[in-house]
Specification:
The protein is mainly α and 490 residues long. The chain has one domain: Amino acid/polyamine transporter I (Up-down Bundle). Helices cover 76% and strands 1% of the residues. It has helices at residues 10-21, 24-36, 40-68, 72-77, 87-117, 127-135, 150-166, 171-197, 202-210, 220-234, 240-246, 255-287, 298-312, 316-350, 354-373, 377-420, 427-454, 462-484, and strands at 80-81, 84-85. Strands 1-2 form a two-stranded antiparallel ribbon. Strand 1 (80-81) and strand 2 form a beta hairpin. Helix 8 (171-197) packs parallel to helix 12 (255-287). The longest helix has 44 residues, at 377-420. The N and C termini lie close together (11 Å). The mean pLDDT is 93. The structure holds phenylalanine. Phenylalanine binds at residues 20-21, 23-26, 97, 100-101, 104, 232-233, 235, 238, 240, 334-335, 337-338.
Length: 490
């Protein structure tokens, strides 16, 4: 059987959890939705959500993993009523996280390709056309898969090889790799903030980012966006943080660590906003347009807008390399944290060798990822991302709170957490786990279901959307199947 590996020290655990949390979500998702939902007002809402939902959930996941000393499925299998246990919830979380990682790694694949394109700023004067046509080969509809661009498949393969190597010996290897993958993107981010702020027009961009429109606090969409950003960004509902906490040696703290990780994640997102918006301000300035016209999120921001700006800077290839290395190192530790979480689950349950499980998961994820490399890949990425974020993560978070809060008992868990932690949690934590998180997750689930019944997501055909629904249902079935297989005791 695989021997149990622990983090070498507290710093390794904190860095690994931070690495998992801090990812593409901080750099290209947060700044954009912050701007879209009222700048400073969204920032305020996000801090509220972080305190009421994000950090309590992180404390809960750390608590579960540390208490039961196992992956998400194993830990939740220890909570029982009669002979019913809740292992399936752990599997469900892992499957949702796995699905997210299959497309997350494709974005890493694009970044690998751009490392080469940037050497000669190959996008020329038309970065948008270059990205959609030359790189992605985007087709006109979701069922027209077009050709598989081999350069992306190779980028994807490189990402998976890198992921497998980073977790080869589990927590032992991860604990070392994260020293680089957490600090390097931070250093690069600071370089981009300083460079960005020194550009003409930067101030206009920052003004856009931060000017608060307080009236937006009244809009339910703002709160929905804040909560879903919080789940995604903190990697809660993925089963990852449960596994990471299970590698903690005895006598470890939970509460302080959760606060550290949550606050570092939010701070990174906030700082990333300065890098993004100062450069967008410059972009708008050079184009003679207003900042609101150049606002983009996600792929377009990273692979079209940023390259345009990079071309305009002196030492363009250098900045380009720094930018894509930043994206890659931001993403890698999030991606491998999921493989670690999933691997821990298979090792706990099926007693297989770590390397076999790591390699197996990575090969399957790589093969599934090929769908997102096709000409319709971007559409599928968009659909899956919507379903995993708005249904998968909320459902996983909701079920975790109900099971621990009401069946295991939030008071029991709180007592355990307080016994081991330097800082103690009070009644507020019970209120959060028993009421605030489950109610908000439940409402958001309902809202998302109603929205989808009314109209298909993003104007895609219902038949395409069915794959989103289908995946959620498939994951529920698979999690029940996994939890029923051979009931071996650990
Ligand atoms: N927390 C990550 C981010 O903000 C999301 C993520 C985690 C994606 C784990 C995949 C696996 O980007």
């Amino acid at each position: 059987m695989e021997e149990k590996v622990y983090w070498q020290n507290r710093v390794a655990f904190i860095l690994a959890s931070m690495g998992s949390a801090i990812g593409l979500g901080n750099v290209w998702r947060f700044p954009y939705i912050c701007y879209k939902y009222g700048g400073g007002a969204f920032l305020f809402a996000y801090v509220v959500v972080l305190m009421l939902i994000g950090i309590p959930l992180l404390i809960l996941e750390f608590g579960i993993g540390y208490k039961f000393k196992g992956s998400a499925p194993y830990s939740l299998s220890q909570v029982r009523i009669g002979n019913i246990n809740f292992e399936f919830i752990g599997w469900f979380a892992i499957l949702v996280g796995f699905c997210i990682t299959t497309y997350y790694s494709v974005i890493m694949g694009w970044s690998f390709d751009y490392l080469f394109y940037t050497l000669k700023t190959m996008w020329g004067d038309a970065p948008k056309e270059f990205f959609y046509k030359n790189v992605l080969g985007l087709t006109d509809s979701v069922f027209n898969l077009g050709k598989i661009p081999w350069h992306i498949v190779i980028g994807l393969l490189l990402s998976w090889v890198w992921i497998v190597l980073s977790i080869w010996k589990g927590a032992k290897t991860v604990g070392k790799v994260v020293y680089v993958t957490v600090t390097l993107p931070w250093i690069l981010l600071i370089v981009f903030v300083i460079r960005g702020l020194a550009l003409p027009g930067a101030f206009e961009g920052i003004k856009y980012y931060l000017t608060p429109s307080w009236e937006k606090l009244l809009s339910p969409e703002l709160w929905q966006a804040a909560i879903s950003q919080c789940f995604f960004s903190l990697t809660v509902g993925f089963g990852v943080m449960i596994a990471y906490a299970s590698f903690l040696p005895p006598k470890s703290d939970i509460v302080n660590n959760a606060f550290l990780v949550g606050l570092a994640d939010a701070a990174t997102a906030y700082i990333a906003g300065f890098a993004v918006f100062s450069t967008l301000g410059y972009y708008a300035y050079t184009m003679g347009v207003s900042v609101s016209d150049v606002m983009k999120s996600g792929p377009e921001l990273a692979f079209c807008t940023y390259p345009t700006i990079i071309s305009k800077l002196p030492f363009a290839p250098l900045f380009g390399i720094m930018f894509f290395v930043m994206l890659l190192t931001l993403a890698i530790d999030s991606a491998f944290s999921l493989v670690e979480g999933a691997s821990a689950s298979f090792i706990d349950k099926f007693k297989i060798k770590r390397w076999k499980s790591n390699v197996g998961i990575s090969i399957i994820a790589f093969l599934l990822g090929i769908i997102y490399t096709t000409g319709a890949g971007l559409y599928w990425l968009d659909i899956m991302d919507h379903f995993m974020n708005n249904f998968g993560l909320f459902l996983a978070g909701f079920l975790e709170c109900i099971i621990i809060g009401y069946i295991y008992g939030s008071e029991n868990m709180k007592r355990f957490i307080n016994e081991v932690s330097e800082r103690k949690i009070g009644k507020w934590w019970n209120i959060s786990i028993l009421i605030i998180v489950p109610i908000s997750a439940f409402i958001l689930l309902l809202v998302s279901i109603i929205e989808r019944i009314k109209s298909p997501y993003g104007g895609y055909p219902r038949s395409a959307e069915a794959f989103g629904w289908g995946s959620i249902i498939l994951f529920l079935i698979l999690s029940i199947v996994f939890s029923r297989i051979t009931k071996e005791e650990k």
